[in-house]
Write a structure and sequence with these properties.
- The complex is a heterodimer.
- Chain A is built from 9 helices and no strands.
- Chain A is an all-alpha fold.
- Chain A has one domain: MetI-like (MetI-like fold), CATH 1.10.3720.10.
- Chain A is 82% helix and 0% strand.
- By secondary structure, chain B is α/β, with parallel strands linked by helices.
- In chain B, the strands form 2 sheets. Chain B has a 6-stranded mixed beta sheet with strand order 6-7-8-3-9-10, sandwiched between helices.
- In chain B, strand 7, helix 6 and strand 8 form a beta-alpha-beta unit.
- The longest helix of chain B has 16 residues.
- The termini of chain B are far apart.
- Classes of the chains: A mainly alpha, B alpha/beta.
Amino acid sequence: MNVLDLFIEYKHYYIIGIKITILLSFLSLIAGVILGTILCLLKMSKYKLLSILSTVYIEIVRGTPMMVQIAIVYFGSYVMMGVNVDGFIAALIAVSLNSAAYVAEIIRSGIQSIDKGQWEASRSLGLSNKQTMRHIILPQAIKNILPALGNEFVTLIKETAVASTIGVADLMYASKIVQSSSYQPFNPLVIVAVIYFLLTFTLSQLIGIFERRLSHSD
Amino acid sequence: MIRIENLNKYFGDKHVLKNINLEIKKGEVVALIGPSGSGKSTLIRCIDYLEEPTSGSIFIKGENIAKAGKGIDRIRQSIGMVFQHFNLFPHKTVMENITLAPVLTGKLTKKEAENKALELLKIMDLVDKKDVYPNSLSGGQKQRIAIARSLAMDPEIMLFDEATSALDPEMVGEVLSVMKYLAETGMTMIVVTHEMAFAKQVADRVIFMADGEIIEENSAVELFENPQNPRTKDFLSKVLQY
């Protein structure tokens, strides 16, 4: 069976896989943005302890493989708390916690990329720290942050492939099923690679268009 | 209006302001001159509390700014600051740049702020630019908008931190003439500048700083025509030789 026939024959597996992969990545991104914003606020806090805690969290998450993190959440929830967490939920939790660390850094660098002169001008007019953040800094920082969040989405689509290791029926998992039911070790991999590529490439192009539109309004 | 007592400022172990004492009266125009790195900019940034003094006190209308806490916002509302690089808000139109602070601080309603902005734009001769974004303005126009933005808060003191240093030569004049106009209206001003002719013509008092110290201060005419300290003489001979 050639690659195309193989894809048509097993396409419902792939379609489910695509849905699960996108759903997992997207929900994780949303949760990551919420948690990441909080982490970023903690990291930039004037209270040293909060800032250190946030930094430690971010460094640990960024310094360990997502595969390990997913396994820790999935098996750890049983070993430590005796709960049997559904694979998808475990993956969602782990990927969200992982993404939060990256998103926190994205937001922080977006904010810090704004020229110090903007703070000074605003504060010298008598606006408070909060007013400056809300009316001057964030509206400008968001232009750097949004495209970077789009790229984080692209990264998540690829990285969530490791969720298949705990049995989440994502795109990678679909590929494994097709491998074993068709007795073809190689062609399903080609198919899944092409699908991943099409997903991420399309998304990157959309981000590019969006980014150009943002910079237009400068 | 402004009183500075024993002000010291360190950046790391670098002693950039050394025991500065200075008093500036209402309506006075003071020019701060001196070589780069002499601490002039740091001094006026301290007055707006953009730099925190290491020791010493600064009083604005009798109030110690280091002890103001959250009250610093209120004090800053009475001090306008004009920066070398303008620091206009790029995501706001000219009109929004000017009206933002008075509206957010509750000083004026939106309508009042807009009327005030139009008045200021008329003075700056930039009414036709009210709806454009700062990006499309020339340096001289940006700086005049920045001055208008500060004036919209009705400040009692205006600080100019090398306001013309980043401008192309042909635009320096338009900004200086606005500053001169302000001085004539009786505004209390501290001007850090390299424009000696301007300092001589407009300032009531000129202060020469070097290495973080006030070396000499005098009326503009006296300081330029009859400098006493050898370092002042040396500096003036270098900047005035062309």
